[in-house]
Amino acid sequence: MATIYQVSELAGVSLATVSRVMNKNTRVSDKTKQKVLDAMEQLGYKPNSIAQSLASNCTNSVGILVSELHGPFFAQMMAGIESELRAAGKHVIITTGHSEEDKEQEGIEFLISRRCDAIILHVEAVSDDYLIKLSKGSTPVYLMSRYVEQLKDNCISLDNQLGGYLATKSILNQGHTQIAYIAGPQFKADAFNRLEGHKQALTEADIKFDPALYYIGDFNETGGSKGLKHFIDEKLSFTALVCANDEMASGAMKYAREHGYNLPNDLSIVGFDNVIFANYLYPTLTTIDNPIGKMGEMAAKLVLKDVYQNKNLVINRFFEPTLMQRDSSAPLIK
Amino acid sequence: MATIYQVSELAGVSLATVSRVMNKNTRVSDKTKQKVLDAMEQLGYKPNSIAQSLASNCTNSVGILVSELHGPFFAQMMAGIESELRAAGKHVIITTGHSEEDKEQEGIEFLISRRCDAIILHVEAVSDDYLIKLSKGSTPVYLMSRYVEQLKDNCISLDNQLGGYLATKSILNQGHTQIAYIAGPQFKADAFNRLEGHKQALTEADIKFDPALYYIGDFNETGGSKGLKHFIDEKLSFTALVCANDEMASGAMKYAREHGYNLPNDLSIVGFDNVIFANYLYPTLTTIDNPIGKMGEMAAKLVLKDVYQNKNLVINRFFEPTLMQRDSSAPLIK
DNA sequence: ACCTTAAATGTAAGCGCTTTCATATGCAAT
DNA sequence: ATTGCATATGAAAGCGCTTACATTTAAGGT
C-alpha cells in the first residue's frame, strides 16, 4: 500500500505538501496540487487513517453503546446515528451493555480506550454519578433517552411523561375508565416517567390510580403476557390495557387472543415506542411514536457540532412523542 | 492521559520493558513486571490503541457491512458477530450498503481505508468478480449468506435451496397442491435459490411449476401485499402461499385479512427467515428458521481463526435451515 | 534594479507505541 | 577466577502521518 512518502516522491514535492492537499486547510498552488493529485491517482493512494489519527489526535470515530444490537428500538437509533455520521466521513464503533452495570461500564471503557472522539450512550444500569464523573474525562459523552441535569447539554431526550400521558389519555378519550397498566422496570428512567404520565392522565380525569391494576413487567414480550395473566387471574375488571412498550403490548395481545378475547372490542391495548413491527401486529397496535431514529440523527449532529466543529447545525435536545392511533384500541362499547 | 513513557519512568525501566509486560509475549522477570504493573495502576495507564495499531500494523477491528442497520435479520447477524468478537477484545466497525452497488463498494472502501484487519460482508448488489478481485487485496474478506466458488473458504452460507424446499414441502405435506409463490428479487442469490428449492419440491410432488402463480416481490412488506393482490386480481385458484421472506409473508397476511380471508383456513401462508416478529404475528407465522445469528458467530470465529491465529476453533461454513411450523399454515380442508 | 511582504513549500520533530538488535546480567561449568 | 550461555533489559529505528517553524519563491512598490 502506497504511503504519503511515495506520493511525495512521485509528485516531486515534500511530505508536507501532500499532507496539505489532503487536508485542504492550507493553500497550495494549483499546479503543485494537480501534480500531487495525479501521483495519488497513479499510485492508488489511500491515506492510512490510523497514522492520521495518531498524528492528529483525532480518530474520526464515535463510539456507541446500546443495550442490545438486535431489537427494533436500538436498530432505528443506530441507523439514525450511522447515516448522519457516515455522511460526514466518521465511523461508528458499536458495542453493547446488556442493561447490566458492569457490562455497561466495561463497554464504555472499551470505547474510550479505542480513543473514540466522542461516545453516544444508551445506558440504563449505570448511575448518574458515574456518568457525571465520566463526562469529566477527556472523551465527550452524549446520552440518549436519558436526562441528567448536570449533563443536560449532552442529553437527547424524549418526553416520556408526555408519552405516557398521551397513551392513557387516548384511552380515556375513548370512554374507558378501568385501565390496567403494565410498566417497565422502574429503575429505568423512561419506564418511570411513562408511568408518571399515565398517572397524570388519570388524575386529570379524576380517576384514582389503582395499584391493583398496576404490574411491573420486564419490557419483553413475556412481561406483557405475564402482566395480563396476572390481571385476569386476579379477576380484576378493566376494559383497556396500557403497556409501557410495544414488546409487552404484543405479548399481552397474544395472551389475550389465546384466552378468547376479541381485540379490540373486549380489550383495548396501547403500546409505546412504535417499533417497526407494531404495524405488523393484528390488530395493528395503537402506540406512542418514539422518534428514536430522529433522535439518533440529532445525537450525531450534536457530536458533529460540538466535537467536529460543524458550526451551522441546529440542535434540538428534546423530542416529543405522538400518538399513533391504530386498531388495537377502540371506543368503549357500553 | 498517561503514556508508556511515563510508566517506564515511574517504574524505572525502559519503554521496551513496559511494552513487553503489556504484550505478554516475551519473558520479563517477575520483579520488574510487578514494578511496571504497579506503575500502570498508579497512573491509571491505558494503552493508546491507535499507536498500538500503527506500530503493530494490526487495528484489532473488523469491518462489517450490512444492507441496513435496522431490520431484524441484520440485527441478529450483527449481534452474533459482535458478541463473539468483543469477547476476544476486537471491535466492530459497522457500515451500510443499502443493497446498492455503488454504496456497497463505497462502504467496503471505507472499511478498508480504516485499516480493518478483516471485513465481513453481507452484500447483495456487488458482483462476484468484484468480490474476487477485492479478496486479492491485503484485507481478508468474508462473505455472509453468499457463496462464491473461488472464495469458498471465506463464505458462511445457508442452504437456501433446502430452505425453499422445506417451505414448499411442508405445505405439500399438508395436502395443498395449488401453491402460489412470492419470490425475492432474482438478482439476489438467496432469493434465486429459495425459488429453486420451491421448484424442486413441486417437481418431486409431480406438480408443474405454474408461472401464473409466481410473483417477484421486493422482500418488503409491500411486496407481499402486492403479490397477493396480483394473484387475487387474476382470479387464480390457490390454497397456499409461500413467500421468500417473512416481511413479504407478513404483508400478504395483512392483505389477506383485510380482504376477508380467515387464516389459515382460507389460505395457508409460509415465510422464510424466522425473524423475531414472525412469532408476534397473528396467526403466528410458519416459516423457515434462518440461523443468521449463529452464522454471524461463526463468521467471527472464522476471522478469529484465520486472522488472529486463534487455532483451535472449529469452523462450519454451511448452515441448514429448519422448518418452524406455526399457525399460519394448516392442512388443506377439502 | 532593489527591498518588502505575502504566499508557497520544505524541514524536521513529534504522536505513542512495537520490535530488532545490541548489551548487560546472572549462573553453572571449567 | 574464567569462560560460555541463556535470560533479562535497554537503545533506537520506524510505523505513516500532522504541523510548527524555517526557508524559498513570487509579486508589488519604489
Automatic annotation (TrEMBL), chains A, B:
Keyword Transcription regulation listed: yes
Keywords, in A-Z order: DNA-binding, Transcription, Transcription regulation
Residues of the HTH lacI-type domain: 2-56
Record has Transcription regulation as a keyword: yes
Molecular function GO terms recorded: DNA binding
Source organism superkingdom: Bacteria
Descriptive protein name: LacI family DNA-binding transcriptional regulator
Annotated organism of origin: Pseudoalteromonas distincta
Record lineage: Bacteria, Pseudomonadati, Pseudomonadota, Gammaproteobacteria, Alteromonadales
